[in-house]
Design goal:
single chain, alpha+beta, Immunoglobulin-like, 5-stranded antiparallel β-sheet, elongated, disordered C terminus
């Protein structure tokens, strides 16, 4: 009686964990009658093929300086005259130091949004890798599991840039950190189109990054909310009592853009400021602004008050002169009571007039003199 037994695979490893760069051997135990004519190996269900680092000898397979690309399922197949048999696959795991993969494309996102990122690292399947992060704004995050995403809030321009991550596994960490970029990309070339008096839509030709944008419409001066909705969709609005409506595009708590437009059905009360042209020498000004009119009125008022100012100034000058003379005379009389100098007091002891006082009397101002001085202005 003849029978065929399927091959049985037994993997013999040099250690409980096969590290990258070491050799590993697999052995296929065959129970067969008759003895199989050949034994060959498959890798991930495909023929192993020729490999300078793979040496097959009878029922054994030796992998030299095994690399991470050799991790996978191995089976052996035996054939004899009665048929063929296949072994149950055995899985080979190769341990290696976590390394950075190809740098991924930058992640586009708007201000006010959030992005969840993972470190772009290659690691052994069953390795416990922890990752330390440094965010674009300098914030550091303690070690987290490789499979746990990190949520980054994009509140300011400093939150955009390169995020740096350091993976570390049981065999160590790479010489350089891994990086991924976050770039600011927001909707642009936006415009508001009124569909009806109470319906409008805000559309942008450059949509920017995918995000939960919100459009809020409000009255410009009062700030009263008229309605809100999504970007590119019709907004049902409460009728505005003002002539200007503001549309804001928001991402989270950040306002990305603001567009002000005239409300339909309401006459505009907003006018552009008037400009005052520069007057030319030889002709009147075409349009006079409020400031020019005020200046002209003030000048006319000064001209009309000039005579009155003249008489007031003259009267004040006369009063000051009279007071000065009176004080001088009183002082002179007081000295004559104790002094018999005839030159000063006169022949009969009456108070005379000092020559310096006489010059003062002759030079005292009059109302006519003051008015002539004022009229020069």
């Amino acid at each position: 009686m003849c029978c065929s037994d399927p091959p049985v695979l037994t993997a013999e490893l040099s250690s409980s964990e096969v590290e990258e760069g070491k050799d590993v051997s697999l052995h296929c135990k065959v129970r067969s009658n008759p003895w199989p004519r050949s034994v060959y190996w498959t890798f991930n269900d495909q023929p192993l093929g020729r490999d300078p680092n793979a040496m097959a000898n009878n029922q054994s397979l030796v992998l030299l300086r095994v690399g991470r690309e050799r991790a996978g399922r191995y089976s052996c197949i035996a054939e004899n005259s009665e048929g063929s048999g296949r072994s149950t696959p055995v899985r080979l795991s190769v341990k290696f130091v976590p390394t950075c993969g190809a740098r991924p494309a930058a992640i586009p996102a708007p201000r006010g949004g959030k992005v969840a990122v993972k470190c772009p690292v290659l690691a052994s399947e069953d390795d416990k890798v922890l990752v330390r992060w440094t965010l674009p704004n300098g914030t550091r995050i303690a070690a987290v599991n490789l499979d746990s995403p990190v949520l980054i809030k994009l509140s300011s321009p400093n939150d955009f840039g390169d995020a740096v991550c350091w993976p570390e596994g049981r065999l160590g960490k790479p010489d350089k950190p891994c990086r991924l970029g976050i770039v600011q990309r927001e909707p642009s070339d936006c415009a508001v189109r009124w569909i009806q008096d109470n319906s409008a839509v805000l559309k942008c030709s450059s949509p920017g990054a995918q995000a939960d944008y919100v459009v809020v419409a409000s009255e410009k001066r009062s700030g009263k909310i008229l309605g809100n909705g999504s970007l590119g969709q019709n907004l049902r609005l409460t009728r505005s009592t003002e002539d200007v409506v503001a549309f804001e595009l928001r991402s989270g708590e950040v306002t990305i853009l603001r567009i002000e437009t005239s409300a339909p059905g309401i006459p505009s009360t907003t006018s552009a400021p008037r400009t005052t042209p520069t007057p030319s020498w030889g002709g009147p000004t075409a349009v006079m602004g409020a400031g020019s009119a005020a200046a002209a009125a003030a000048a006319a008022a000064v001209v009309s008050l000039r005579p009155l100012l003249c008489w007031l100034a003259g009267g004040l000058a006369v009063l000051i002169g009279f007071t000065t003379i009176t004080i001088a005379v009183l002082r002179a009389r007081g000295r004559c009571s104790d002094d018999s100098d005839e030159k000063r007091c006169g022949r009969h002891g009456a108070p005379g007039v000092d020559p310096s006082r006489a010059e003062l009397l002759e030079s005292r101002p009059t109302t006519a003199t003051v008015c002539r001085g004022v009229s020069r202005f």
